[in-house]
Each structure stands twice: as C-alpha cells, then as structure tokens.
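User: Teach me something about this protein's shape.
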Amino acid sequence: MRVLVLVFALMITKNTFAEIYKWVDEYGVTHYSERAPVGIKVKSIKFENEDKNFKEEVDKTDETQKLSKGLTNLIMKDYGNAEELDCQKAVDNGNYSLDVMQENIRRSLKNGYITREKYEKGSAAFDELRITLATDKCENSSDEWKKYYLCLTNSMNTIFSCANKYLK
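Assistant: First, the predicted structure itself:
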C-alpha cells in the first residue's frame, strides 16, 4: 500500500505546477522552480491543458521528460540518514513534506490543473503517510522504522524518499 501511495504522490507531483521556471546558474547547474528567481534569465514552462502537456519554444518532448525526471529526482533524492535520532524533528520534517505537497495539489485543483477526484486521491495518499508520523511511534521504533525516522531527521530528505527507502 505504501508503494502505491508513493507512486500516486509522484504522479500528482508531476502535474501540480501551473507554471515552472527553468534557469542555469553561474556553475552551469540547471534549476526548476515554481517561482522565477529575481534578476536571472529564465524559461517559462506552462501547462497547456487538462492533459498536462507542456508548451514551450524548445523541444516539448525532451523538456517534459527532463522536467518530470528532475522533479522526481528532487523529491526522491536520498541525502542519507541523520547520525542521531530526533523524533520531534523527524515528525516535523515529514509533516512539512506532506504540507508542501498538499498545498501544491490544492493550488492545482483551484487552478483547474487536476480534477476533484485526483485531489481527493492525493489527499488520501498523503493522509496514509501522515499516519506514520508520531513522536511516540518514533521513540519506540526499531529496525527499518528507526531507519525511516533517522532518514526523516535529516531535513534535506522528503517523506517520500524515506518511505520509499524503508517502508516498502
């Protein structure tokens, strides 16, 4: 069930932004964001319709694949576990990941980029993950669950990367 929750969360993620900005920094690293940085030349990538097709001046297929892969990699990137378990921090970090995703799908619903049905499925998937977040569960955890909470203690990780790694 948790794997299905993660897969659904990633499907929602790829379709949550009404507009994405792409730019290359001074080190040659390509970035994608829902907010354009100030004072930097950016390319705007917009959703064309309900099918979530991208419309841009450059090769649509290549850019869509790069963007999708980039967003998935960002969400699923493993930054390693914290050395010391901090249950409150782990729970806070997990809730923050879910809150950000919940807000993104809420905006997508409001702006007509996803249906009410997809929004409700996404919310239910996030609720399924939110159940795993409790300080008492963390404090009494062992084995893979303890590793899951150690992963969440690292603020760089998302709940999706930690759940994918330890709650299969």
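Now, about its shape. The chain has two domains: 2-9+81-166, 16-76. Strands lie at 19-24, 30-33, 43-47, 54-55. If you'd like, I can walk through any region in more detail.
User: That's plenty for now, thanks!
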